[in-house]
């Protein structure tokens, strides 16, 4: 969708909201802190004016007064952030876009990017903050946060894929368990021949999923690369930034952009914030977390915490007699690979660890292949 089409669509949405309610719907009031950008305040002001043309009332916090903008004067970046928090706490603004913010553990941001292969938007869950100190638990929560951001952006049935990083397979098993428990998750299907909801680099470029689940550090790098791949990295030109902080019980709508974000990205972030306000994002947070809890989310997270505890004693297991192992079993996280091999050794099945083109694999003989899959499934290493 072109920028002109998006602007027209947003204007019609505002009119439709007003017709439905029978009264004029006020534009969302979103603050923007403009100081601290590597591109200067002029860049932020350009973004604020552009966002106002797309249906957002911007409260600009900075050192300059600008005709056509509601401005709050501050002397420096630190004072700007203090004023932003003050306005949020007083409910004088509906949300804010800023360049850094200290989210508590349990809250992380869902970015919105545009991928180059198809020009499609995709949500990255997540890009800053930390949903959990445990990698896999964090990715499970990131998936739910991504669905929340997607639905609060206007998607009714977003597809969810998991980036093929450490923890992906454990996350996949947990999310499928959550779906089996009744939480409505629609899994994306990889564009590669082997399919599945664990996605690869090709899928990132094509936006195979509406929501791409990963850890925050990986999501942060992806956001930077996708937003500035055509500019050499110094100017983020595409997408909507790093997104809103989402977490259980968290009620401040704060969206993150980078000091390298250009005016187009900051303007998109302001519009993203407006979308979330219009779609009552915090109601969506409560609804989705309640639905996930009803489907067993807390039990799944508890089981994950127990599984991640170090064993009291490390049992020594010797390898059975060596034999040819031409048959590979994929779907195991690299951090679990050696433990998975020892599961088979314990049952007198010879196995080795390896790395295939799609990631880590356990190698067995063809005769032991099916039995090995069943043993690893029972031990929780494969879905």
TrEMBL record:
It holds the Pfam family FA_synthesis. Residues 310-329 are annotated as: Disordered. GO terms for molecular function: acyltransferase activity, transferring groups other than amino-acyl groups. One of its GO terms (biological process) is fatty acid biosynthetic process. InterPro entries: FA_synthesis, Gly_reductase_pC_asu. It comes from the Bacteria. The active site is at 357. This is Glycine reductase. It comes from Thermophilibacter immobilis. The lineage of its organism: Bacteria, Bacillati, Actinomycetota, Coriobacteriia, Coriobacteriales.
